[in-house]
Amino acid sequence: MVVLTLLIAAAAFWSALVFQGQLTEARRATNLTSESFRIDERAWIEIEPIKPALLSQDAKFGATFTCDIYPKNAGKTVARDIVVNAHDLGAMEGFGSDAAALRSTQEKMLLGKFREMGSNNPVILPRNLVPKVLAPNSVSPVPFRLTCQEPQRFADGHQSIHYLVGRIDYCDQFLVKHWLKFCFFVVNARGEVWACQEGNDEDRNTETATSETICGKAN
Q1: 78-128 pLDDT, tens per residue?
Q2: What kind and span of H or E run contains 54?
Q3: Cα–Cα dist 91/70, whole Å
Q4: H-type helices in the chain, by residue range?
Q5: What is the phi/psi pair of residue 36, to 5°?
Q6: What is the pLDDT of residues 150-178, one digit of tens each?
Q7: Which SS3 state, helix, strand or coil, does residue 104 take?
Q8: CA 33, chain centre distance (Å)
Q9: What are the residues whose beta carbons fall under 8 Å from the beta carbon of 23, sequence distance 6 or more?
């Protein structure tokens, strides 16, 4: 009887372990399914192709253009609390390949501490004119307007490039924060715009909100 009792207890213990393992796997599978669903359904903010429009032509400074940034929600659900922080600035040609400098600039923009290059003067960024909410598969009806200029070439062979640097922050339907950083520059007098080597990135936040990635409570 003692042996039988021990065998029954061992079998019960083994069954409990198997059940706990199955329950853990079921929960993991449920979480993965929920995560996959949210990734597929979340809002995705991208930028429409930039189409510079000639603003002025100067013999000394060359062509100046308006470079409008149109955020687009390419996702399947609404994007909320959209904030665009961007600035056009002149810098030497290596700036677009300097990941650390671009990251510092883009982070300072988020914190409202961006300052002119080589100066302590604060930059007054343009007002955010884009809507705070974008429906799925829709483009902002108004742009975030920046000014861009053709490259300035100097006698020593160097040139100053006009960069469009910024970031877009937003929340998805599942109360998870997301951001899109961008860096573009004007290539020539026709106003062609290319992407910088660095400075174009998106967050990798999971769709399981944490204390660092959760948005404010919905009204």
Answers
A1: 999 999 999 888 888 889 999 999 998 888 877 777 776 667 777 777 667
A2: strand 53-58
A3: 24
A4: 2-41, 99-111
A5: -65, -40
A6: 998 887 777 889 999 999 999 999 999 99
A7: helix
A8: 25
A9: none
Fill in the amino acid letter for 70: Y
Structure tokens at 152: 């300035």
pTM above 0.85, yes or no: no
Q: What is the number of alpha carbons within 13 Å of residue 150 lying toward its C-beta?
A: 18
Fill in the DSSP letter of residue 93.
G
Q: Which candidate, 158, 159, 178, places its Cα nearest to that of 168? A: 178
Residue with tokens 């660092």: 212
Assess contact for 42 and 171: CB atoms under 8 A.
no
Q: What is the dihedral of CA 202, 203, 206, 211, to 10 degrees?
A: -150
Q: Which amino acid is at 219?
A: N
Three-state DSSP state, 56: strand
Q: Each residue of 117-161: pLDDT tens digit?
A: 667 777 777 667 899 999 999 999 999 999 999 998 887 777 889
Residues whose CB falls within 8 Å of the CB of residue 123, separated by 6 or more in sequence, listed in order: 87, 114, 115, 116
- How far is the C-alpha of 107 from the C-alpha of 124, rounded, in Å? 16
